[in-house]
Write a structure and sequence with these properties.
JetB, 2 domains, DUF4194 domain-containing protein, Arc Repressor Mutant, subunit A, globular, 6 strands
Length: 196
């Protein structure tokens, strides 16, 4: 756990900064990420006071990370604080991460990659052989939007756009990709064993 004496620096913040710090903590805990492009004032405050975030989150046995190139501040808690995804959601977020990697290198620094809902559903079907049901699609787009992984526009309309945020690279890092692959292989093997 970090140096608790550094927590005293929080008391030294003036009223406006203390309010910003409180808001920053609430946003991070509820949404996992702060994006510079979405909340520039909070993001800049967080970068300037990153040492306070580190100490605060260390008290919760959690980590806080930043990537100023991507414009992201993120926190990662212990196992019990992590979001659980079902198989369909795991595959969908893995696909979104793949799209992000495919498209991000061809963009200017200020843009985020964009795909359509149709792109997602077609890739999902190609990977699984199954259709992504509309109700499940709607739920996962809403859930991923809430955690600032994406911003889905136009609902589940096939031509609707999905903006892919750089937070996908934080949420689904290389270690997570390897775990997802192993879990998916394991799940598919079990399903094949159950087939007559």
């Amino acid at each position: 756990m970090g140096n608790l004496e550094d927590l005293a620096d929080i008391d030294r913040l003036d009223r406006e900064d203390a309010s910003l710090f409180s808001r920053l903590l609430r946003e991070l805990v509820s949404r996992c990420f702060i994006l510079r492009s979405e909340e520039e004032r909070l993001y800049n405050f967080g970068i300037r006071n990153f040492h306070l975030l580190e100490v605060y989150f260390a008290c919760m046995d959690a980590q806080v990370r930043k990537d100023e190139g991507l414009g992201v501040i993120a926190w990662r808690g212990t196992t019990e604080n992590r979001v659980r995804l079902n198989q369909e959601e795991s595959i969908a977020v893995f696909i979104l991460r793949l799209f992000y990697e495919e498209k991000r290198n061809s963009l200017r620094l200020s843009e985020y990659p964009i795909i359509t809902v149709l792109d997602l559903t077609q890739r999902f079907k190609a990977m699984t052989g199954a259709e992504l049901k509309k109700t499940h699609l709607k739920d996962l787009l809403k859930r991923f939007s809430r955690f600032r992984l994406i911003r889905a526009q136009d609902g589940i309309n096939p031509d609707g756009t999905i903006i892919l945020y750089p937070t996908l690279a934080f949420a689904i890092d290389q270690e997570t990709i390897e775990k997802l692959r192993e879990n998916l292989k394991s799940d598919l093997s079990r399903e094949e064993e159950m087939l007559p």
